[in-house]
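Notes to self after the call with IL:
- keep both proteins in one doc
- input above output, always
- annotate only the second one for now

Protein 1:
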Amino acid sequence: MSVITLSRVRKSFGEKTVLHDIELEVGEGEMVGLIGASGSGKSTLIRLICGLERMDRGTAGRIALFGKETQKDGRFSERSEALRREVGVIFQQFNLVNRLSLVTNVLAGRLGRVPRWRGTLGLFPRADRVSALQALERVGLIGQAHQRASTLSGGQQQRGAIARVLTQQARLILADEPIASLDPASAKLIMSTLREINRQDRTTVIVSLHQIDHAFEHCDRIIALKDGRVIHNGPTSDITPADIAALYGVEPGSLDLVKARPARPAKAAAPRRPGSGLDRDDGIAARVLANA
């Protein structure tokens, strides 16, 4: 099934065109690396897909998620808001509320799926609270569940952001330079976590990266943007050092590329079933909830 379809998508800011008639399709269960120099249009493309930006009008452009139209010719469809609930976005700056506990931040992933009054008052159902703790357990942060977000390291906060989209039960994850401000060890852990979610849950992941070695190590497919145009779209194994040099406008051989092998497709584990949140009541997450 096609998870993302873009046709003739153009985006301008004032007189500057940032994206030129983009044509893309991403299938279910893919992990795609989005690469390109600063200003190439990567973040704008992600913001268009998740509905934070409108495309230009007058081009008959179209964006569809899960086979249903979200934008056409710069206008949002009636179903766009409902479809955006299926999309989890991970930003470079984590976007956690520092004064709140980590688990409360993670519960924000449920805001689109509970009545507004419950979200405003923080009265989440028990099933949602257990689900949030299970997500934290999965990313290795169950012990920090009740710490203030401000006390966590950058890598821990970004794993908290991943737990938030897990709690959201997002079918598509868009990560906009999620490791740009992290140390190498934390960056590797974040990318490995996203890859695990992709393989185990069959969640489609698009991750924007400046670190080319991580794109080669973790992604099955590379989409490369230059000056707002797609100049490469294909399996990771097909892109060459010369392609990378052309992408960044440097001489071949001048980039110190890590000797990462192109990611090999792995046999996916059986998808995790999103349960009621109570099916693991005898686990660590439930015990943390009981002691909260």
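Protein 2 (the one to annotate):
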Amino acid sequence: MPDANIQHFHDAPTGTLSYVVADPLTSKAAVIDPVLGFSVVSGRTDTNQADVICQYLEDNKLELEWILETHAHADHLSAAQTLKSRLGGKVAIGGGIRKVQEHFASLFNLKAPFRSDGSQFDQLFSDGQVFRIGSIDCRVIATPGHTSDSVTYLAGSAAFVGDTLFMPDYGTARCDFPGGDAGLLYDSIQTLFALPDDTTYYMCHDYPPQGRELRYCVSISEQRKSNIHIGAGRSRKDFVAMRQARDSTLSLPSLILPAIQINIRAGHLPAVEDNSVSYLKIPLDQL
């Protein structure tokens, strides 16, 4: 089986890393965690990053098979439907999205036709499920803890870990969102640490400290040894205590309210109302 060709794309406003994963034998490809731009001031969306990714796919004559979400992100809006409308492909996420949808449907008072059954997505993956990007076998690894729907996509020796892990000098994901659990996150990371020694982790975000350039991938050995939150054999008890103390100091992501409303819909905007305008809700005094 050939190694995948991997190209990263960095969205500076949200610090998000998206990827094109392509099979060199068949020219089939997947896009992981694409970003739709959004201004909280004007309420306008933009497709700047999606445009760049689409151009890359077209320039390299790649056929888009999959648009893969590692979870329903709280820090950026998904451009899944922009990509699908232009180039096709199936939009997929972990089956835990149903729990996320159920919680936020209550918060945003979402009524029919919205359903908390994952039907907005073309594919819901279960833990251990195998699918293909062209001729490349990919395995889904459930990695809950940050959120209940978090998954890692393993394509050969490349593991796309979403928000479960960050670069070693930044640590691990927060666990104070609905469905989050620091103990589960610890267990999920141990599952990732048990992958083969040649595994490379591909991050969904990087927040480099002053003086360090952006990084998008890191070896499994560096994470095991040097991750400031969980490396060097840190115990589950110590990790949970650290994570809970740290999470209690964190502010909510600035885009959480618009992002969740779009992302639990697989990137679809809310239906337009009778004035042909689509609206997002802001629940008052709830978060």
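Annotation: Helices lie at 48-59, 80-87, 97-107, 182-193, 220-226, 236-247, 256-263. The radius of gyration is 18 Å.
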